[in-house]
Design a protein that fits this description.
- The protein is an alpha+beta fold.
- It folds into 2 domains: about 100 residues, no CATH class; about 90 residues, Sandwich (Immunoglobulin-like), CATH 2.60.40.
- Helices cover about 20% and strands about 35% of the residues.
- The strands form 3 sheets. Strands 6, 8, 9, 11, 12 and 13 form a 6-stranded mixed sheet that branches.
- Helix 1 crosses helix 2.
């Protein structure tokens, strides 16, 4: 379908919603070009055809005015698609575009930093429970969540909290990081990994 004719038809709809009683005219010039306007052509008003579309009130932008919109109509007289059907199809497509535009671009997170544990920190006697915390700029948007990454693997469930306790974490060298996930669980941003150490006191037994 040639979308140039659909553009003209949606302009026609916009005018119809702005003034329910406004008359719209359609005519074809000598070169086969179809025109739409809220005024008939001055040179040949008798050839102009009145066009009426069944459009629900409130659709469109009342501030827009239709003057003359020439388009090439590849379906003129073919009966392939009616003007009402073409206009309704275009309105449905515009609704989808509007919903996509309203969601806006993806949120940028310029900074996600691990606050706890600190890089190189040695932790003693944590009893396998590791408190973690991070700072995020800006704060979590929409339904975004944080996924903690321990030693390169996701640990626990995604959460809206920037601090929690991970378990079990045993003695040894570890790394901790965090990812920002979107509503579909896709990674939007990753923090740098922080290396830390977990130690336990050595008990010397007397011989």
């Amino acid at each position: 379908m040639d979308y140039r004719i659909l553009t003209a038809l949606v302009a026609l709809l916009l005018v119809g919603s702005a003034a329910n009683a406004q008359q719209i005219y359609r005519w074809v010039d000598d070169e086969g070009v179809v025109h739409y306007s809220d005024q008939p052509p001055e040179d040949d008003a008798a050839s102009a055809e009145a066009v009426t579309l069944d459009v629900q009130p409130g659709i469109g932008n009342p501030s827009r005015e239709l003057r003359e919109t020439p388009v090439v109509d590849p379906f003129a007289g073919s009966g392939t698609v009616s003007e009402e059907e073409a206009a309704q199809q275009l309105l449905a497509a515009q609704d989808t575009d509007a919903q996509t535009a309203s969601s806006g671009p993806p949120v940028a997170y310029p900074d996600l930093e691990i606050l706890e544990p600190q890089a190189g920190e040695v932790l003693w006697n944590i009893a396998t429970q590791l408190p973690v915390a991070a700072t995020l700029t800006p704060g979590l948007q929409g339904e975004h969540e944080i996924q903690w990454i321990l030693d390169g693997q996701p640990v626990g469930s995604p959460t809206r909290s920037l601090s929690q306790t991970l378990t079990p974490v045993y003695r040894g060298t570890h790394s901790i990081a965090a990812n920002v996930l979107d509503e579909q669980g896709r990674t939007l941003f990753r923090s740098n990994a922080v290396t830390f150490y977990v130690q336990q006191p050595t008990v010397n037994r007397a011989r």
